[in-house]
Amino acid sequence: MELIIELAEVSDVEELIGLYVSIYGKDYPLELGTNAIAMKKAIEKRDEFLWLVMRDTEKGVTAGSIIFELDYNFKIGKVMGAVVGNPYQGQKVATRLIKEGVSRVFDEERGANRRIHSLYATARTIGLSSQFMLINSGFSPLGIFPNARKIKTYESLTLLGMFAPGVLDRRAPLGQISKRIEPILKICNHAIGRDDSISPQVIECPGESPVEGSEEDEFEFIFAPTFVEKRFAEKFAEDRESIFYPFHTPNLIISSVQTDMEVYASFNKKDHYCVIITANQSIKNLSGKFKKLIFSMKELGIYYVETLVRMDYFETICFLLDNRFLPSAVYPAMREEDGMMHDYILLTRTMVPLDFSDATIHPDFNPYVYEYVKQWLHLNLSIVEGIES
Question: Model pTM?
């Protein structure tokens, strides 16, 4: 038996769908594995996707598959869709595919403007196999997405990252950070082997000042992917540098009735999952209105919200923390600006009860889980703190 790695071809799509369904079942959440049209487009877009397959040349079948989605603008890549057929499991097929893909992505010679600085992946917590596979392939644990995806129940995901040589040496210094995000930054630094690389001043957030009468605002939701994408392109045509949320395209506008503020988001109705990408004004302008906004989002069917914030945006982070977002993950050296690599923090808010009872989590993620649960308990059950049993 000879197993060789090649680029996927459009002619492989039907066999690949059968492979994904046979291993993951019909509830597999990714289009690239279930949607033939989307799969063909991805395979054809060689400048955006590196789709590798492992072929058994003797039997003429596909033994495994993996996808690298690449954004050369932000110099970041996403690893997804790792699958291995039952007859080939235990033969390190996935590990070989990842190693080959990482080598091609990081070693490619297309000029400095084409280089990928980092790769990330998310792993489900219904089992340990995908988490072990990525960690054993050199990915570092960066955090968690609690209650992020609704499949059969609300499921948490883990976040992992890998960095090209020298990238972590160029991390931008931090002046000050909130005391509430210091623990997760330390956990991340330890996970990537950089315990002493970032030593910012740690201070308390000042606390949000109430804005009298502002809760009276109402919000309208415009879920129209094509319209939203066009409006987004028009609004930010001259300001692309401030927009940063790789691999997410807005399909939802949340509009304030009383003001001209518009929040652009990516909403997955099936998962009840929403990503806040950007707004036409500072998010801090929603001071005093955020509680009403979150209530309106929940009425629409949004039960999980996340956003990425550059680690040195102290006031924005404090505003979100004051509005019940929690630090869930750190992505170090995520974006290059002015020659420096800036860290980003993932802030999340779940509107359904936190439940890790069905999650199977690799021990390397335990520090993130413990810190998140600690802050969640303090935020939601602080009334019982100090009560003696």
Answer: 0.90
User: pLDDT for 234-273, tens place per residue?
Assistant: 888 766 666 778 888 899 999 988 888 999 999 988 888 8
Is 227:233 a contact under the CB 8 Å cutoff?
no
Residue 89 to residue 137: CA distance in whole angstroms:
16
Contact by Cβ (8 Å): 349, 294: yes
CATH of the domain at 195: 3.40.630.30
Q: Are residues 66 and 204 in the same domain?
A: no
CA distance 311 to 182: 11
Q: Which residue has the tokens 């084409």?
A: 114
Q: Are 332 and 343 spatial neighbours (Cβ–Cβ below 8 Å)?
A: yes
For 365, other C-beta atoms within 10 Å of its C-beta total: 25
The number of domains in the chain is 2
Q: What is the DSSP string of 223-247?
A: E-HHHHHHHHHHHTTT-GGG---TT
